[in-house]
Design goal:
Layout (H helix, E strand, L loop, with lengths): L2 E4 L2 E8 L3 E6 L10 H7 L3 E6 L17 H15 L4 E6 L1 H12 L4 E7 L10 H18 L1 H8 L13 H13 L2 H11 L18 E6 L3 H13 L3 E6 L6 H4 L1 H18 L1
Parallel strand pairs: 3-4, 3-5, 5-6, 6-7, 7-8
Antiparallel strand pairs: 1-2, 2-4
Helix pairs in contact: 1-10, 2-3, 4-5, 4-7
């Protein structure tokens, strides 16, 4: 896996296929390889960039360095600059979706399109303290008990319970991806990029003029509401609610997600 020097460390990423670039940002406690099912199902004709975001996978950034959404956005822009990519389609799931929204408001001219899956643009001020406390709870588990113990407890959350519909092989593969992360990296990610730490960007989204696709699972009512709000705020957005699906859309229904995403990307490319 190639790496790129970024502020404070090195960004690891996969670069696969040929065609219009599509950069996909994974969720918390995952890594770039968590997208492989979606990539395979989406078919050819795309150049997939799958970074391991700060605090995750093979990306090496010291825990004391910034791990926030702005730093992640800067890493992605640095990656595009290094690869000579003026504009990329950008896809983000959950935490990766919040990073994608952060990048979109910071550098909208760099986006060909924006796809957000199971994410929001920041919590209300009265909701953030409780979420920050929850993030701190998970940080303590990581730092005191390690990644394996954390992963075991995380996988029992209702938020990701829909993955149990998949085969044991798929569940085991995702479990290995989680457990390869470093505890200190995940803790730094929660500290700086957790939903409790995110400054909302809802009011800035009206300036993001690229085509957007907003996706949520029908069985995930909280994030379905976030998706409806995002689709209403972004100027050129369309909304897709996937049936028989919870929060973990890329893991629960990768084929359905790939079908929606590929059709959307093809329409954007055809429009020029």
């Amino acid at each position: 896996m190639p790496t790129l020097a970024v502020s404070g460390g090195r960004l690891a990423y996969a670069d696969r296929g040929r065609g219009a670039p599509v950069t996909a940002c994974h969720g918390f406690a995952l890594a770039g390889p968590s997208w492989w099912e979606v990539v395979a199902a989406a078919g050819g004709g795309w150049r997939w960039l799958l970074p391991d975001l700060r605090g995750h996978g093979a990306t090496a950034v010291p825990p004391e360095a910034p791990h926030g959404l702005a730093a992640i956005a800067d890493d992605l822009i640095a990656l595009w600059d290094a690869l000579g990519i003026a504009r990329s389609h950008l896809v983000g799931y959950s935490m990766g979706g919040r990073a994608a929204l952060t990048l979109a408001v910071r550098a909208p001219a760099r986006l060909r399109s924006l796809t957000i899956v199971s994410a929001h643009a920041g919590l209300a001020d009265d909701q953030r303290p409780a979420r920050r406390a929850a993030d701190d709870h998970w940080r303590a588990i990581l730092l005191e008990r390690g990644t394996d113990r954390f992963a075991g407890e995380w996988e029992r959350l209702p938020l990701v319970s829909g993955i149990a519909r998949r085969s044991d092989r798929v569940q085991a593969r995702l479990g290995r991806i989680r457990r390869r992360n470093r505890a200190a990296g995940l803790a730094a990610s929660l500290r700086d990029a957790g939903a409790g730490a995110m400054a909302p960007v809802w009011e800035q989204l009206a300036a993001v003029a690229c085509p957007a696709l907003i996706i949520a699972g029908a069985d995930d009512p909280r994030y379905r509401a976030h998706a409806e709000r995002l689709a209403a705020v972004l100027p050129r957005a369309e909304l897709a609610i996937l049936p028989r699906c919870g929060h973990a859309v890329p893991a629960e229904r990768p084929m359905a997600l790939a079908e929606r995403l590929a059709a959307f990307l093809e329409r954007v490319e055809a429009a020029g």
